[in-house]
């Protein structure tokens, strides 16, 4: 066990996970509530809870044992925020960028990094992901949100390159977005994983539906 893991402590990790799961359940109750004011209050309260939890996690040095939870909290925060705002914002792109940078902070072999955009960050993180199998499910969830953001912003070239990388295909092998989306095969979620508002397969289904409406 690494020094970072020891410093965090499994009891803290368990408490953070319990808080994430409680907030996800609260957000789901809000979605199913028929009372508009109650729904809004519950959802906003869950959003602020996720924001605070993410702030706590990102206040620590990036550590591989904690990152699956941190990335899950990031995804839940982005999904709930987009739901309340009925769309994506530039802030959510910054949330994704921060998460990718945190992943790379754990990989000393990548050395000092120059300023990178989201496209370059995704390339670096997905290349490193072969060394980080415990992060794969969470990274595919985050990639699904990135894909949704780029689809909504009409950045189809970036979206195609991301899907090619996720599919393990060579750059330029296919520019057929629908085919790339259908080929994307997110890893199965672990049974004991932290709760999520939407898993990667669910995000893929949403993307396929959204893309169909564009045709």
TrEMBL record:
Organism domain of life? Eukaryota
Matching InterPro entries: FANCG
Originating organism: Pongo abelii (Sumatran orangutan)
Q: Name one GO biological process term.
A: interstrand cross-link repair
List the taxonomic lineage.
Eukaryota, Metazoa, Chordata, Craniata, Vertebrata
Mind telling me what this protein is named?
Answer: FANCG isoform 2
One GO cellular component this record assigns the protein to is:
Fanconi anaemia nuclear complex
